[in-house]
């Protein structure tokens, strides 16, 4: 008997996935749990392992195809095994008012089903499914003034996916005939104003955006449209942390098998500061403030194909070792495409570290629905003016870094952000790290 390979459900609200790459060719041998193909969803990019050992007998869906969860995409078996034929296409959806065939069951993803059972969504069943798409799709549709009922979705039963609406917006949605208002200045024309990316005859190379790049673009634009972004920058002295880390890192690695970078110190200080300043660990829900009782730190990981933000859960309950292990594990599995969708959601505050690429500081975009994000600049030696107890000034070489905190001014005031960063600064500029004493 051949073994079916199905599109997995990478999270409870995921209804489909796009096959981005087959890692094995038809006729090649695979081992159980060997990476078989790569997929991309609205939540995560991932490698999917083979469910069995054998030969890849058949590939039913090619790279670039978007496939519903649980649909068979390939067959694995022994040489000479005959794969079962692909099932016939599902019957068309019944029109409004007509009884659907008994053998056809329409299933909406949880986020679609929860879209408001009592809402007045009219039209055929196909129209209702298209309109009850994911919250992110509906958010993009609202901002772009797109009527989802006018789109032919590629998802289950015509459900409009994020890829569908991004493609629709990118191609330039058709406008309904209305009386043309007086033209506004280009700078004030809003989302309807477009500038050509290239001119006829210009030498260019055109490549489609990766799915993760399109998702990131949509999230960043949504964030800038939602939050009132303000950034403030602090200069922080890492000299004491640098000295104790240099003394402890070899023993730390030998005892625990994981590296001790600067990041666990920063996570520790940020988690403690969030507990002391809960307004930075919150979200806005209409006119309500949602204070998060748990501290889940998102850490941005730059990849060759985009940006992911895995989450360190209950960071305030972890010591330096726990934070180091969690961060190193999540970053490693992000680069290997081994993260699950649940590891990319639920963050309450995000840190990004452009300093590893040499940036002095940045003004990062808030990761919705959070209200703040911390950008960490390069940690490096700089000449600083130092004063002794007698008030005499000298020039000293210190290990310094700029921390840029971007916050949502709808909730967080400048004083709130400053108090928060001062708490972080105070902890990072101290030499009180008793848990490292065994490794000194």
Please characterize this protein's 3D structure.
By secondary structure, the chain is an alpha+beta fold. The chain has 3 domains: 3-77, RNA polymerase II/Efflux pump adaptor protein, barrel-sandwich hybrid domain (OB fold (Dihydrolipoamide Acetyltransferase, E2P), Beta Barrel); 90-96 and 106-174 and 210-226, no CATH class; 230-439, Chloramphenicol Acetyltransferase (2-Layer Sandwich), CATH 3.30.559. It contains 9 helices and 19 strands. Strands 9, 12, 15, 16, 17, 18 and 19 form a 7-stranded mixed β-sheet that branches.
Outline of this structure?
The protein is α+β, with helices and mostly antiparallel strands and 440 residues long. The chain contains nine helices and 19 strands.
How would you summarize the topology of this molecule?
Blueprint: E1 3-6, E2 16-22, E3 29-30, E4 35-40, E5 45-49, E6 54-59, E7 66-68, E8 72-77, H1 110-113, H2 125-131, H3 135-143, H4 162-171, H5 211-226, E9 229-237, H6 239-256, H7 263-276, E10 282-285, E11 288-291, E12 297-299, E13 301-303, E14 306-308, E15 311-312, H8 320-335, E16 349-352, E17 372-376, E18 380-387, E19 393-408, H9 414-428
Parallel strand pairs: 12-16, 16-17
Antiparallel strand pairs: 1-8, 2-4, 2-7, 3-6, 4-5, 6-8, 9-19, 10-11, 12-15, 13-14, 17-19, 18-19
Helix pairs in contact: 7-8, 7-9
CATH superfamily of the largest domain: Chloramphenicol acetyltransferase-like domain
- What would you report as the Rg, rounded to the nearest angstrom? 26 Å
What shape does the CA trace take? globular
In CATH, the architecture of the largest domain is: 2-Layer Sandwich
- Runs in which pLDDT lies below 50 for 5 or more consecutive residues are 89-132, 175-189
Distance between the termini: 60 Å
Instruction: Tell me what portion of residues adopts beta-strand conformation.
Output: 15-25%
The whole-number mean of residue pLDDT values reads 82
The CATH topology of the largest domain: Chloramphenicol Acetyltransferase
Number of helices: 9
Counting structural domains, the number is: 3
What's the helix-strand series? EEEEEEEEHHHHHEHHEEEEEEHEEEEH
Largest sheet: 7 strands, mixed
Q: Class of the largest domain in CATH?
A: Alpha Beta
Helix content: 10-25%
- Which class best fits the helix and strand makeup? alpha+beta
